[in-house]
Amino acid sequence: MPAAAILIARKDLYLRFSNRASLLFLLALPLGLSLIITLVFGDLDGDGPAALKGIPLGVVNLDEGTAQQGRPINYGAGLLQLLTAAAPEAVAGAGAAACPYASAGGAVEPDLAMNELFSVQEVRDVAAGRDLVNSGELAALVIVPADFSTRLSPQIGPGVTILYPQAPASVEVYSDGSRALEGQVVSAVVAGYSERLLAGNIALGAAINGLIVQEPLAALRLAAASDDEAISAALACGFADLASGAVADVHQAGPVDDHALRQSTRVLAFVGMAQATFFALFAAQFGVLGVVEERRAGTLQRILTTSTTRSAFLAGKLLGTWVTALFQLLLLLIALSLFASLIEGRLFFLWSASLPALFAILLPLSLAVAGLGVVLVAFVQRVEQIGAIGALVNILLAMLGGAYGFTVPEPWSWLSLIYWGVEGMARLGAGDTAVGLNALVLTLQGLVLFGIGLWLFRRRVEV
Amino acid sequence: MKTLLEARGLNKQYRREDGSPLQALADVDLAIRRGEIYGLLGPNGAGKTTLISIISGLMAPDSGQVVIGGHDLNRDPLSARGLLGVVPQELALYEDLSARQNLRFFGRLCGLRGPELEQRVDETLEFVDLADRQRERASRFSGGMKRRLNIGIGLLHRPQLVYMDEPTVGVDPQSRRRILDSVLRLRADHGMTVLYTTHLMEEAQELSDRVGIIDHGRLIAEGTVGDLVLQAGEQDRLEIDLVESGRLDAALLQELERALSGAARVQSGGPIEQGRILVHASRGRQILSPLITALGAAGLEVRSVTVQEPNLETVFLQMTGHALRD
Q1: Which residue, of A216, A244, A272, is where some domain finishes?
Q2: Most-buried pick from A61, A65, A284, A451 (CB within 10 A)?
Q3: How many CA atoms lie within 13 A of A403 on its CB side?
Q4: CA-CA distance, A301 to B51, in Å (whole number)?
Q5: Weakest-pLDDT range from A57-66, A164-173, A242-251, B21-30
Q6: Which residues of B have a CB under 8 Å from any CB of A?
Q7: How far is A297 from chain B (nearest CA, A)?
Q8: Same domain for A230 and A158
Q9: In this structure, is residue A252 part of a structural domain?
Q10: For chain A, what is the domain count?
Q11: A254 in a structural domain
Q12: Are B96 and A19 an interchain contact pair (Cβ–Cβ within 8 Å)?
């Protein structure tokens, strides 16, 4: 990093943190936003927000199920069971208690009374369900496709090879636009269920446990031949559970963790992170607005008549914005964790108590956010333009990333840095620190966006 | 005297909103010598800003070359720009930083560090007469003080070539005088070369060793003020008011021209009965005495004489066909 870039970043940070208006934006808004999120989604009085109780929800379960080593599996039915369960009943993953995946999959378990949060109505026909949403009778409709279980489940193929599904599984949440909050809650729960099934490799675990029970020798051969970490871990877990007798029925309901979280805390975690990222996007744009302001004030031109290159100038802006976005994200997360601690009645870290894991997501996320700001600023000439164009881009990213309560099918959602940030934080919240891919994608997004911004900025004839 | 800045064959074309081309610069050659104060005159839209932007490295020409202190601006931009100090017309400083913080920031960007930086900052604050207000935010300064700080930032790293774009625009007479004096001191004390643009002819005349006149993207003339007057063929203008028009007529005017041995052109300054005579001569003051003698001999009594010598304003008008402020 050239010295000029660091100088420019330092100057920006000094100006930002010494200016009252900027400070208000930097400190008060994140705190205010976290308070609002808590008041809306939190459950400070212990009863949960009245508006979010008894959400009328329709479920069309078209899932035809699949079989693992002859055992019938239907994850769609599991989802329906989850949405209608009363605490502390749960839909267990494979080897729920002892398997390390269980901790990741544990969040599937409805430790709070889902039947209080949702008023579920099973609907047979998709069109009829959509009509019910359109008429306002239902807040949202969950449509589980026929091949949901199949797509989630790897199969044990000839020669004891693991055959992963070619296409990803997806559940559609059809919601009423005027009831965005309820739709968001439904999406959060459904997305959480699907993600846990995948992230926790529960489906893989189910397949392998079936293999262990029915063909233990084949399972041993697989254990010897496979160098896949997930398969090896699932096998180890399955054999351990076999020894303890826990592999008898992969779909048997079981007890949940004593320290189950309140539903409001879960919602707070999801919504809070999505909104924090969304907010950071605006914060980053506010940060790189400085480029436009410097251009207008003539200081940009003056800097560029020194020995400072355009790359160094833009790198300085990126660095300053990166630090600012990181600071704001941290502030929001700390505030939300404090509110979550109030809800839980104990010190509780919403996403992770592990600082390295947290920074593994926050650093690249704020870099990506700052990189996006650089691209925007390279496009626009006036401050007013950045407001309009920036808002448009942010909303688009929020839609793609699922921050508005509905999910966009992959791979479209992968385009949004919000998706990678929220997904990574969701993993951390579930105790899964395998967020390398999220960090990598976000870092790449940040660097590519900065590269594009720099290219545009250098091509500009006039500054 | 060695050349510090040399621009050769600079061309730059823009596209208007309707798509038609606009030649902002056309084959501009410019050479500024070390230690020289060079005044660049031109009305708005003449190509002055484009030329300066190219020389400052903010814009690339379509063709042509700029060399500063032997460094090609295109091939070795950082070395070339390191010799340059810029004082833009619009204030280019951070209002929320103090005078000292502004100077430190730009000084560091110019590569100054440690005690050298602090010493230069102190010297510059003294030079622009802001030492006693150095800890105050620039936003609390008067317009003149901000202008001086704006100048100080451009001079801090002691550049070999300082480009000053109309630095006296919008300042009170006292601050203006200070600024003009400081420009002269830059050369006297530090041997700096100054490229100075202005709309004010009297400033250009007072400061500049040489003046370049740019119009419609072309450098149409350059030289000392005296050279330019000669180039333009401008003469002194004598306006003589008589007590009575008396026997003033065309024949008498011809007689006066003969009496001055053809060194001047004599004509009536309006209707004959108004009693005003206009005389154009390259050495106006020298013919004044024989002219009054000739008028006395013709029985005409002089009430007043006004001598108007040519200046850059008239030269500019003569060369471009329009006034500088048009």
Answers
A1: A244
A2: A284
A3: 25
A4: 15
A5: A242-251
A6: 53, 56-60, 78, 81-82, 84, 86, 88, 90-94, 96-97, 105-106, 108-111, 153
A7: 6
A8: yes
A9: no
A10: 2
A11: no
A12: yes
User: Residue B44 contacts by C-beta under 8 Å, 6 or more apart in sequence?
Assistant: none
Q: Do A306 and B93 touch (CB under 8 A)?
A: no
Range of the domain at A418: 3-43+262-459
Residues A166 and A17 in one domain: no
Alpha-carbon distance of A268 to A42, in angstroms, equals: 6
**In this complex, do B56 and A305 lie within 8 Å of one another by their Cβ atoms?**
yes
CB spacing of B88 vs A304 below 8 angstroms: no
Q: With beta carbons under 8 A apart, name residues in chain A contacting B110.
A: 306-307
Residue B265 pairs with which residues in a beta bridge?
B280
Q: Can you give the pLDDT at residue A219?
A: 55
- Whether this model's ipTM surpasses 0.85 comes out as no
HSE-CB of B307 using CA atoms within 13 angstroms: 12
Question: In whole angstroms, what is the distance from residue A11 CA to residue A303 CA?
Answer: 13
Contacts of A11 in chain B (CB under 8 A): 94, 97, 105
What are the backbone dihedrals phi and psi of residue A69, each rounded to the nearest 5 degrees, phi first? Answer: 50, 45
Average pLDDT over residues B308-312: 78
CATH of B3-231, one of 3.40.190.10, 3.40.50.11540, 3.40.50.300, 3.30.70.920: 3.40.50.300
Residues B199-215: tens digit of each pLDDT: 787 888 889 999 999 98
Q: Does domain B235-309 have CATH number 3.40.1790.10?
A: no
**Percent of chain A scored above 90 by pLDDT?**
8
Same domain? For A346 and A423 the reply is yes
Strand partners, B63: B11
Of A195, A218, A244, the last residue of a domain is A244
A298/B88 Cβ within 8 A: yes
Say yes or no for a CB contact (<8 Å) between A304 and B58: yes
Residue limits of CATH 3.30.70.100 in chain B: 235-309
**Chain A residues interacting with chain B (CB cutoff of 8 angstroms):** 3-4, 7, 11, 15, 18-19, 297-299, 301-309, 461-463
A292-342 per-position pLDDT tens digit: 888 888 999 999 988 898 889 989 988 998 898 888 888 888 888 887 787
What span, in angstroms and rounded, lies between the C-alpha atoms of B21 and A184?
A: 54
Over residues B106-153, the pLDDT tens digits come to 999 999 999 999 999 999 999 888 999 999 999 999 888 998 999 999
**What residue in B sits closest to A298 (Cα-Cα)?**
B92
Tens digits of residue pLDDT in A26-58: 777 767 776 776 676 655 554 444 445 678 889
Tokens for A216? 């233990």
